[in-house]
Write a structure and sequence with these properties.
Helix content is about 40%, strand content about 15%. It is of the alpha/beta class and about 300 residues long. It has one domain: TIM Barrel (Alpha-Beta Barrel). Helix 3 packs across helix 4. The two termini are about 30 Å apart. About 45% of the residues are buried.
Length: about 300
């Protein structure tokens, strides 16, 4: 698989990345190892986790895998800090992540969500200090709005700090708001874009209906916070449109939703989640699909 430069950094990542939110939360360590092995074998080099995933359990599994397989230099390792983003908290989180990941450096250390309680200037200073110390190579953010990214870039420029070099937003057929401002900003400022949730946390697979009870054990059952995001009139209208187009093109809804996400311009890498090896393979199959017209036109 080809590798793409992440913004203007010297990190090169695969166009498909592996999101590790399921590890130690929805699947056990043995299954996680099998998925990681298969993903790397197929050319996925971007491994993205977070301290919040299974309360550090995801990072622990990834760290054991890295040490056991001796693959640290073959992957780009990304993780995130969440909660209160005070300087002390950020530094402590990075050090804890390093221990769980069994490594001496994090390639991409990201602020998981915006923190309204801590001045972002303090958070940015802490991130920059981690880069200076060599514990972190580059810093990024996840789930930020365009104005928040712009504010941080200006502050770092004015104060000589290491700036945010990548963003990680959700991007799928239902959630397309980043087109209006975040994507143009990233293109202008040469920021890498790592999108996630191409299947809308499983909503676009077709397993959920307007009046249907959420099946036990599914993502929307395990993480009910997803429901108000996608269980909307707009969401179900897009789902119905996806179903219609899938029938017409004789493709599955999963194939079309994944293919749409992977065809989007300005995206460096699309993160896929997996609970089985087959979930990795279905993403590669969708990436290889060819259509007579751009999918964007079909869903306009």
């Amino acid at each position: 698989m080809d590798q793409r430069r992440l913004g203007d950094t010297d990190l090169f990542v695969s166009p498909l990345g592996l999101g590790c939110a399921t590890f130690n939360r929805e699947i056990d360590g043995e299954t996680s190892f099998a998925i990681l092995d298969h993903a790397l074998q197929r050319g996925i080099t971007l491994i993205d986790t977070a301290e919040a995933y299974a309360d550090g359990g995801s990072e622990t599994v990834v760290g054991r895998w890295i040490a056991d397989r001796r693959v640290r230099d073959r992957i780009v390792l990304a993780t995130k800090v969440s909660g209160v983003l005070s300087p002390q908290r950020i530094v402590a989180s990075a050090e804890a992540s390093l221990r769980r990941l069994q490594t001496d450096r994090i390639d991409l250390f990201q602020l998981h969500v915006w923190d309204d309680t801590t001045p972002v200037e303090e958070s940015l200073q802490a991130l920059s200090s981690l880069v200076d110390s060599g514990k972190v190579r580059y810093v990024g953010c996840s789930n930020w709005r365009a104005w928040q990214v712009a504010k941080s870039l200006l502050y770092c420029q004015q104060h000589g700090l290491h700036p945010i070099r990548s963003v990680q937003p959700p991007y799928n057929l239902v959630q397309q708001d980043i087109r209006a401002d975040l994507l143009p900003l990233c293109a202008d400022q040469q920021l890498g874009v790592i999108s996630y949730s191409p299947l809308a946390a499983g909503f676009l697979t077709g397993k959920y209906g307007r009046d249907q009870v959420v099946p036990s054990g599914t993502r929307f059952d395990v993480m009910p916070g997803h429901q108000p995001i996608y269980f909307t009139e707009q969401g179900f209208a897009m789902l119905e449109r996806l179903e219609q187009i899938a029938v017409r093109l004789k493709r599955t809804q999963v194939e079309l939703a994944l293919a749409w996400a992977m065809q989007q311009p300005l995206i460096t890498s699309v993160l896929i989640g997996a609970r089985r090896i087959e979930h990795v393979d279905q993403a590669f199959s969708a990436r290889q699909l060819k259509f007579d017209e751009p999918l964007d036109a079909l869903f306009a």
